[in-house]
Amino acid sequence: MARDYIYTDERDLLIKDGDFAVGEADNQHIENILLAEKGEYKHRPLVGIGIRRYLNGPMDYDARRRWKRKIKLQLEYDGFRNIEIDMSNTIQIAAEK
Predict the structure, then answer these.
(1) How far is it, in rounded angstroms, from Cα 31 to Cα 29?
(2) Could you tell me the end-to-end alpha-carbon distance of the chain, in angstroms, rounded to an integer?
(3) pTM across the whole model
(4) Cross-strand partners of 86
(5) How far is CA 3 from CA 28, 50, 69, 75, 78, in A?
(6) pLDDT (tens digit, 9 = 90+) per residue, 3-62?
């Protein structure tokens, strides 16, 4: 379980008791990896899925399999393990750090 600064739904830093809120951030890290495009993080240029392309593209069995593999590799690169991805209706990810 990773602890980090917590963001609001609007992607702003959460303030609690006059200071930045810190808490469990694994789901937040997964979301950041999914949304980021490669090269967006200058210190780790290979990190990023660019999930918006998935949401706007055609989806057949092979495409879904390729996206699952991309997601799994990115999460493993970030230290996650026991990764389960369900892309039947929505994207649901379960992983441990």
Answers:
(1) 5
(2) 5
(3) 0.80
(4) 92
(5) 10, 24, 26, 16, 14
(6) 888 888 887 888 999 999 998 889 899 999 999 999 999 999 999 999 988 777 777 889
Q: What is the per-residue pLDDT across 72-94, written as a single tens digit (0 to 9) for each?
A: 999 999 999 999 999 888 889 99
* CA-based nearest residue to 63, from 97, 46, 47, 87: 87
Residue carrying the six token digits 């799994």: 72
Q: Which of 96, 94, 78 is nearest to 86 (CA)?
A: 94
Per residue in 27-40, pLDDT tens? 899 999 999 999 99
Give 40's strand partners: none
Residue 79, C-beta contacts closer than 8 angstroms, at least 6 positions apart: 97
What domains lie within the chain, and their CATH numbers?
3-96 (3.10.450)
| Eight-class DSSP state of 13 | B
- What is the C-alpha to C-alpha distance for residues 93 and 97, in angstroms, rounded to an integer? 13
